[in-house]
Give the backbone structure.
Amino acid sequence: MASKDYKKVFKKKYVKGINQFEQLTDDTTAKFEKNFIKRLNKLEPVWKFVTTWLAGALLVIFFVLVQIIHLSVYFQTNQFVPGGKLKEGILGSYSNSNPIYASTPVDSSVSNLVFAGLLKNDNSNHLVPSMASSYSVDQTGRIYTFKLRPNLKWQDGKPLTSSDVAFTFNLIQSPDAQSPLFTSWKGIAISAPDTNTVVFNLPTPLSSFPNSLTMGILPKHILSNISPANMRTIDFDTVSPIGSGPFSLVAVRSQGNTPDTAQQTIELKAFKNYWQGTAKLDGITIEAFHNKSMMISTFNSKKIDTMSGLVDLPVTGGSVRALSIPLTAANMIFLKTTDPILSDLNVRKALLAATNKNQIVQALNYETKIVDEPLLKGQLAYDAKYSQSGYDPASAESILNADGWIKASDGIRYKSGKPLSIILSSPDSAEALETDNLLKTQWKKIGIDLRINALSDSDLKYAVSYHNYQALQYGISVGVDPDVYAYWDSSQTDPRSPFRLNLSEYSSKTADESLQAGRTRLDPALRAIKYQQFLSAWQSDVPAIGLYQPRYLYLSNLEISGLNPTAVNSDSDRYNNVVNWEIRQAKVTNPKK
C-alpha cells in the first residue's frame, strides 16, 4: 500500500515538474519574442549607423593610403644604387691586356680596368695621383720622386711596392721585351730606395714626363722569372692577368668560326682591395666584335648595354643615349711635304685658303671645335695669333696663278703639262668620306682635281706606318700636354724611327729648336714662350690643314651615373671614373624632405 502511495506522489511531482518546465519554456519563448525578435525592427537605424560609420572609416583609410602612395613620390625618388653588371660591346679583338703591349681599343680597355698606374686622369682630364700619393721634381727638371700610397695590394692579395714599379719600367727598357714603349723610356734610370719610393732620373728635362706614368704597373712576384723575350706570349697577358686596378679578370671565352661571327667575351669583377675602394658595379663584361653589323644588331636587341668603337652614329631602335665625348685629338689633312706637288709651299697655301673649315664642321652631327694650329684651343701655349688663315678662294686662285698653275678648259689647273691632281687617303667611314667630298667640291672651285682613296682599317694602318700616301686625312692624339715633338720634329721623319709620326714629313730647323726648348722647360709661362717660334713656323710652312677635334662616340641603352667626362685622351680613358659608375636604380627616401 505504501508503495502505491509513493508512486502516486512521484507521478504527481513529475507531472508538476513537466508542467513547470513547459511553462518556463513558454515564458522564455514569449520573453525572447518580446525582448529580441519583436525588437529587431528597431535595430535597423543602428545597423544603418554602424554600416555608414564603417564605410566612412574604410573610405578614410583608402584616401590615407592613396595620399601615402602619392606623397612617396615626394619623399622617395629613384636614385642610383651600387650593384649590377654592365655589358659593353667594343669593335675589335682581344689579344693582350699587358699594359706594356696593349694598343687596340679592346686590349686598352681591359688593361685600364685590370691594371692601375702611378697617376691617372680624372673626369676633367686633369692628371692626378692614383697609386702614387704624391710626386715631386727637382730643380734640374730631371729627377722625379714618387711616393706610393700605403697598403697597396695586387689582386692575388700580395703587397704592391716600389720594386714592382721599377720592375715594370726596367722591363720596357729591355730590347728583348719588344714593347712599343721602348723608345720613350730610353736612357731613364729607375730606382726604388725604399718600399714606398720610386725615383726616375731622366737624361734631359722633360716637362711632359708625368703623362707617361698613367700606364699600368706589373707584378714583379709573378713575372720576374719569365724571360723578357717570352713576355709577349704568356698566359698572364690574356687569360690570367693580375693587376691592381678596379676590376679583376674572371674568364675569357671565344665563339664563332669566321671573321664575321668571331666574338670574344671578357668577364671582369670588382676588386675589393682597390686603393680607391670597391667599384660600385659588381662587374663588367666586354664583348669584342669583329663585325660592326653584328655588334649593332646585338646592341639593338639589348643583349649588350653599350657600344664603343664606332665613328658614325648607326641606325638604332628605341631610346638610345649617344654620348659624344671630345677627344684631345686633331683631325687634319697632312700634306706630304716631300711629294713633288705638295713640296711647293704655294700649293699648300692655296689648299689652305680653298678649305672652308666652317662648312666641314657644320656638316658633322655633333658639336666640336675647329683645329687651326698644331695645338688645341685652350691648351697651354695655344695662341690665336698663330692660327691658320681662313677660307679665301679668291686668294687661293691668285696664289696658283702666280705660281704658274693655269686653268684649262676642263676646269683643272696645269703646270708644265701636268695636272694639279692630288690623291687624298682617308679612313673608310661616313664622317671621313663626307669631309672628303666637301673638300673635293671646295678645291675643284679653284681648279684642283682631288681624288679620294678610302682605306680599310688595315690598309690605313699600313699607309700611315709606311707613309704610303700623297695627302692624308687622319686624326692624331694631342693629349693635354703641348709636347707635340713626335708629330712635327724632323727626327720623326726618319724611316728608322720606330713610330715615324711626322706624317707630313715636315722639316724645319726653327721648329725643331722650338719644340726641343718647349718640352724641356717646367715653368708653364716659359714653355708657352718657347713654343711660339714653332707655332709661327708651322703657320708659315703649312705642313698640314687643321680641320676639327674628333669625338669619342659611346652609345648606351641605359643611363650610367658617374660617366660624365669633359674630355678624354683615348677611348679607354672613359674608365677614368669607372669606380663610381652606377647603373641600378631604386626608390630611396630623401632625408632632406
